[in-house]
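Justification of resources, computational component.

The compute hours requested in this renewal are based largely on the per-chain cost of generating structure records like the one below. Each record pairs the submitted sequence with a full structure-token output. That output is archived, and it is also reused by downstream analysis tasks.
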Amino acid sequence: MIWLGRIAVALVGLFSLAMGLMAFASPVQLGEALGLGALSPFGANSLRADLGAFFLASGLASLLALFAGGAQWMWGVAVLYGLAVIGRVLGVVLEGVPEGVAQAIVVELVLVALSVIGAKTLARG
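The structure output for this chain reads:
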């Protein structure tokens, strides 16, 4: 059963690291893919820093859970993606349903579920 937790954590880690590296390498393109725009060079810098930090923190925590025996790190990842879901739902309630939000919510809920599976399974192993 431990392999299920390792696969879950690896999937979260790979997704998070890929998004974080994309934020560092191409922040404007990632921002546009997520519906954000850089209005100035400072905006591009903020996309790189803020999106990069969010995703790379999740990726680093996943690596620590997977390779350093720190299953508890996945609870932090679950909280990060869970807060993203709460923010999206709040946005839907306050501003309506924008195009693409359902897909983003589903992806983030899957990442929360995989993080919880990883945290619980790796803690037992």
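The two ends are 9 Å apart (CA to CA). The chain has five helices and no strands.
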